[in-house]
């Protein structure tokens, strides 16, 4: 059986499943979607048979013995597996009890993924929490060039860093965009875009805000001039690369993800140098990630600069723009040697 975990609305998952059934009509595929509620679970640890599990969910039963391939696309199991009681007098005690139950629940979910991922897999749940700072360090160790980077909440550190670079950008370390309602008619959308600024901007800001203090850590990087940007989909040692000509558009010049729907960037297939592919492969192996979307820059000085990797990013637009049929490639990988 092929097991796929995803979000209900993820179109990429549907496309991959369509390819699976087109190639092998009778293939057994089980899909579980985001926030699947676990009803019952049992783990077995045997000298003869190893570690296995049986799980009952609101989307059906799972037996780890039948899972031959696992694709973690997106989503999670519901973490609330225990009852809750509301009683003001027992509030402090219940919070402590719930905290202990929650820790146990998290360990149980870890065990579920351990048994689901023990065979051949594409991605895993823990990659949701990949660390940008950690990845930059490992990319450098793999021989990839990275932007000079500073993570700090010290204004003086930022001043010193900015004084050594013509321009600086700031980006999120780990910030998910979110929306919420405010009042009857207002919808609020909060997100952290990539922002470019100079030493002069910082000095002007410091004049207005005399206290040179940050309340929270931020990531800063030297601004790297681009000839074009690269989006690279990596799947078990294979590369599907697209060049994005974002520099002629002021809206996308700093970051192509500031999409211009009226005047879209030109995107074409691209072949990375063999040496760069080898270094990227070494990097992906060092962080134990076998599939992901890598962002890089090609500079006017003909250098390849690594920015970040996203294990669960969208790949359909890359696939369609470059005729790579990535969805088919994922399906073939899941069907291979079951």
Rg over CA atoms: 23 Å
Class inferred from helices and paired strands: alpha+beta
The rounded distance between the terminal residues' Cα atoms is 8 Å
Low-confidence stretches: 80-85
Strand content: 25-35%
| Percentage of residues assigned to helices | 25-40%
Spatially, the strands of the biggest sheet line up as: 16-15-14-17-18
Instruction: Provide the domain count.
Output: 3
Question: Helices and strands, in N-to-C order?
Answer: EHEEEEEHEHEHEEEEHEEEEHEEHH
Task: Give the CA-based shape.
Answer: globular
How would you describe this protein?
The protein has 3 domains: 2-125, no CATH class; 148-222, Dna Ligase, domain 1; 228-310, D-amino Acid Aminotransferase, Chain A, domain 1 (2-Layer Sandwich). The protein is 29% helix and 32% strand. 22% of the residues are buried. The protein is of the alpha+beta class and 338 residues long. The strands form 5 sheets. A 5-stranded antiparallel β-sheet has the order 16-15-14-17-18, sandwiched between helices. It has 8 helices and 18 strands. The protein has helices at 11-23, 91-116, 132-141, 155-163, 199-208, 274-286, 316-322, 326-335, and strands spanning 2-5, 29-32, 38-46, 50-57, 60-63, 69-72, 120-122, 149-154, 167-171, 178-182, 186-190, 195-198, 213-222, 228-235, 238-245, 266-270, 291-298, 304-310. Helix 1 (11-23) packs across helix 8.
Provide the descriptors you would attach to this structure in a database record.
single chain; 338 residues; alpha+beta; Dna Ligase, domain 1; D-amino Acid Aminotransferase, Chain A, domain 1; 5-stranded antiparallel beta sheet; 4-stranded parallel beta sheet; GRASP_w_spasm
């Amino acid at each position: 059986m092929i097991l796929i975990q995803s979000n209900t609305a993820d179109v990429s998952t549907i496309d991959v499943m369509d390819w699976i059934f087109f190639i092998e009509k009778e293939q057994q595929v089980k899909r579980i979607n985001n926030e699947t509620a676990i009803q019952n679970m049992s783990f077995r640890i045997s000298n003869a048979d190893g570690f296995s599990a049986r799980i009952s969910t609101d989307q059906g039963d799972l037996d780890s013995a039948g899972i031959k391939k696992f694709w973690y696309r997106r989503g999670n199991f519901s973490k609330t597996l225990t009852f809750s009681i509301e009683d003001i007098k027992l509030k402090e005690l219940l919070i402590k009890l719930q905290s202990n139950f929650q820790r146990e629940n998290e360990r149980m979910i870890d065990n579920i993924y351990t048994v689901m991922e023990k065979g051949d897999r594409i991605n895993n749940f823990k990659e949701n929490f990949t660390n940008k700072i950690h990845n930059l360090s490992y990319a450098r160790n793999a021989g990839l060039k990275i932007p000079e980077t500073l993570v700090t909440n010290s204004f003086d550190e930022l001043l010193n860093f900015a004084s050594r670079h013509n321009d600086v950008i700031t980006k999120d370390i780990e910030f998910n965009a979110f929306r919420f309602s405010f009042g009857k008619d207002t919808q609020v959308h909060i997100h952290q875009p990539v922002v470019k600024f100079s030493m002069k901007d910082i000095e002007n800001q410091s004049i207005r805000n005399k206290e040179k203090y940050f309340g929270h850590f931020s990531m800063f990087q030297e601004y790297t001039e681009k000839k074009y940007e690269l989006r690279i989909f990596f799947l078990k040692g294979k590369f599907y690369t697209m060049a994005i000509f974002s520099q002629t558009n002021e809206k996308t010049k700093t970051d192509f993800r500031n999409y211009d729907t009226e005047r879209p960037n030109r995107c074409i297939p691209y072949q990375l140098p063999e040496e760069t592919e080898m270094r990227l492969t070494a990097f992906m192996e060092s962080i134990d990630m076998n599939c992901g979307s890598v962002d890089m820059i090609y500079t006017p000085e003909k250098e390849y600069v690594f920015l970040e990797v996203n294990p669960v990013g969208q790949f359909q637009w890359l696939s369609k723009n470059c005729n790579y049929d990535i969805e088919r490639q994922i399906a073939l990988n899941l069907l291979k040697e079951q």
